[in-house]
Amino acid sequence: MKAFRILAFGLLCAAFAGSARAQNPAVAAAEQRLAPYRKLPEFVAAGPAFDARHCMEGKSILGIPVSSANPFTKNIYIAMAAVAKKVGFKFTEWENQGQPSQWVQGMNYAINNKYNLIDLLGGTDPKVLAPQVKAATGAGIKVIASHYSGFEQPAPPGVSGVVPIDYFRAGQLLADWAIAKTGGKANALVIVSMEVNSTASMLNGIKEEFDKLCPDTCKYKVINAPVPEWSTKIQPNVQSALLADPSINYIIPIYDSMSQFVVPAVTITGKQDKVKIATFNGTPFVLGLVQQGKVEMDIGENLDWIGHAIADAEMRILCGLPEVKDPKIPFYIFDRTNADAAGHPPQLSTGYGNAYIEGYRKLWQLAD
Amino acid sequence: MRSVSKPVPMRPTRASEPLRGALVEWAERLGLFIAWAATIAMFGLITPETFFTWANFSTILGSQAVLVVLTLGLLVPLTAGDYDLSMASVLTLSSMIIAVLNVNHQIPIGIAVGVALAVGLLTGFLNGFFILYFRIHSLIVTLGIGTFLHGITLWISDSMTISGISAALVNAVIVWRFLGVPLEFYYAMAVCIAIWYVFSYTAMGRRVLFVGRGREVARLSGIHVDRVRWGALITSGFLSSLAGVLYAGTTGAADPSSGLTYLLPAFAAAFLGSTSIEPGRFNPWGATVAVYFLVTGITGLSILGVRTFVQDLFYGGALVVAVALSQIVRGREERPQ
Q1: Is 0.85 exceeded by the ipTM?
Q2: What would the pLDDT profile of A271-292 be if each residue is shown by its tens digit?
Q3: pLDDT for the residue numbered B3
Q4: Do the beta carbons of residue A72 and residue A303 sit within 8 Å?
Q5: What is the C-alpha separation between B101 and A1, in angstroms, rounded?
Q6: Going from the N-terminus, what domains does chain A have, and what CATH number goes with each?
Q7: Which residue of B71, B163, B250 is the best one to mutate when testing the A interface, meaning the one whose CB has the most A CBs within 10 A?
Q8: pLDDT value of residue A308
Q9: Where does residue B305 fall: left (phi above 0), alpha (psi -120 to 50 degrees), or beta otherwise?
Q10: Do B255 and A257 touch (CB under 8 A)?
Q11: What is the CATH number for B157?
Q12: B39 located within any domain
């Protein structure tokens, strides 16, 4: 009988706590924002259909990734090369190891070989290529910075256009997750790399969401770790922050590859049960950490989808169609409930469904 | 090869007056310890409730084993008069080999670790071969081999980070603890004691020192100089790969580039350590204390919540100031080249 009473009391408490959480407007708002991103993404066209094969005939694009030794950009360009083959235009990746001098060579190569468009992908910084960008646009070549800036960020000076990503929304979703999971009492440690162009947009999203939804009950602290120093800065700084403030309950490394150095910091300080990690990008090894329970959530982007979306936006520019303001690249939230769909071990562009493949085929009016 | 430049530690001088000389010597020997204690005291006074906790000290001690082992490995060729710039690349390759074999090919973790350590030994052997057989400066050979190894790392990993390394390694490195401190700290201490013992109490250690101080003199004294240098480079290759094993165990993953950032901190700790304990020599205890002195300062600054660029100011500033003070103590002696 005593056991029954304890059980009944426990259930009552749980129900009360659940109802309190549901009634919390911050939690409700956060969960509402998260809900669409917990379903498999659907294809949404970024503009009206067009005959891609016809208008891209004889056209060429040269892509300069921030580094070819980077699986993120590498796989986007694999997708773009496949699109080029399918549609029938020339696509060349300028292989480089992340050195601006190599980017300059790529720009000059494109100008000398009269490419129609130069794609600067994922951080190839137009600001350090100002003379080359000017020379290229002067020669009638479109220069596009893709996956570089957020919707609200201005285009870098000199370029013909951008293919933006909704980094601001990604930041909001990270904050929403922490708010929803803590009942509106998040104490987050946000790790950023301020030198990366998209960071400002994501950080603004995080700050705005915390400040708007739970200004009195949530708090956050921001740590900056430049990319080359992730391995030496993140772990000691996270450890110190966790020791200095034992009430921290979420760590938000805004780029998920940072997690590699956050997880050992949480383990060494013995906070695995109390401190959760939410992050962004959907890099396969981090999805593996989600499967293992070391990272709670990762907002993923399908690189193959991104490749299609960038190709779509750039083909529209070359075909004289209106510029795409939103390339409709979806985010998808992975947590323990769906991370297995990414494969064992997780693979790139896996687990997002394939609605986009048929969608783009129809959009570009390609035959079956 | 008389003109080959060699790494020169901070050399001591002897003051003319016996008492002053003894004081100066002790001040120099313990300078780094005093600076470390002062750092602990300062941050402890500012944030006693956080800094003066066992959790904090166990975190400081338990999270720097990779750098300590790498620095200790670096000391050996430095003492013998050679540079090894390939160490961070060996560390990175070693951790990646473990990840590729264990995660992608499901090879037991023990075998993967064995292969990684063997690659470290092989790298040291190759470094020695090119340096000694072709008489090329160690700086050039190890730079080239290190870059070559980085290419191999990118190749075998397909430029990807690989997670999911066996929990057995992770447990043995950072999860299991003794006195609240992760085991990796004790592994690093074991390496430190071993090197200290060899350098201080064995003929082999003395030979390494003689070779580093003067190759011609050592040769004329009957020491097999090339053999000693080769052994030093093989040792640094092995210890670099051991640091890679600890790195893989710390993060539970391996990525193709982050380990490279350990090279300069290892050099900084080695040179900072040479100003203390046994001034004028690259020595294991000095280097180990140097690592913990620097990390204590950085941890204190982090706890205070200062912006991270201040940590770079501390790191670089502490190195230059410590070496400069060491020079003042010994009367601004001109260092022999």
Answers
A1: no
A2: 989 999 999 998 888 999 999 9
A3: 44
A4: yes
A5: 56
A6: 52-165+302-327+354-363 (3.40.50.2300), 167-281 (3.40.50.2300)
A7: B163
A8: 96
A9: left
A10: yes
A11: 1.10.3470
A12: yes
**pLDDT value of residue A23:** 63
Tokens of B19: 């008492």
- Selected for mutation to probe chain B from A75, A268, A287 (highest B CB count within 10 Å) is A268
Round the CA-based radius of gyration of chain A to a whole number and report it. Answer: 22
The answer to whether the Cβ–Cβ distance between A264 and B250 falls below 8 Å is yes
User: Any chain A CB within 8 A of the CB of B174?
Assistant: yes
Residues 9-48 of chain B whose Cβ lies under 8 A from any Cβ of chain A: 47
Q: CB–CB of B252 and A235 under 8 A?
A: no
Report the b/e string of A20-59 with b at 16+ CB within 10 A. Answer: ebeebebbebbbebbeebeeebebeebbeebebeebbeeb
For B220, the enclosing helix (H) or strand (E) is helix B215-220
Domain residues for the domain of B184 are: 18-329
- Name the token pair of A32: 């509402």
Q: Nearest CA of chain A to the CA of B174: how many Å?
A: 6
pLDDT, mean of residues A1-18: 51
Supply the pLDDT for residue A1.
46
Chain B nearest-CA residue for A189: B305
Total domains present in chain B = 1
pLDDT averaged over every residue in chain A: 89
Q: What is the pLDDT of residue B11?
A: 56
Instruction: Say if A99 is an interface residue toward chain B (CB within 8 Å).
Output: no
Question: Does some domain include residue B9?
Answer: no
pLDDT at B9: 67
Distance, in Å, from the CA atom of A83 to the CA atom of A63, rounded to the nearest integer, reads 13
How high is the pLDDT of residue A174?
97
Does B13 map to a domain?
Answer: no
Contact of A124 with chain B, judged by CB distance below 8 Å, is answered with: no
- Using a CB-CB cut-off of 8 Å, the residues of chain A touching B147 are none
pLDDT digits (tens, 9 = 90+) for A39-66: 999 999 999 999 999 999 999 999 999 8
pLDDT tens track for A86-109: 999 999 999 887 888 889 989 999
Residue B58 lies in a domain: yes
Bridge partners (DSSP) listed for residue A91: A61
Whether residue A48 has a cis bond before it, omega within 30° of 0: no
| Distance of alpha carbon B85 from alpha carbon B148, whole angstroms | 12
The tens digit of pLDDT for each residue in A117-149 reads 999 998 888 888 988 999 999 999 999 999 999
Inter-CA distances, B116 with A105, B120, B308, Å: 37, 6, 34
Residues of A in contact with B183 (CB under 8 A): none
Closest CA to B142 of B74, B199, B210, B94: B74
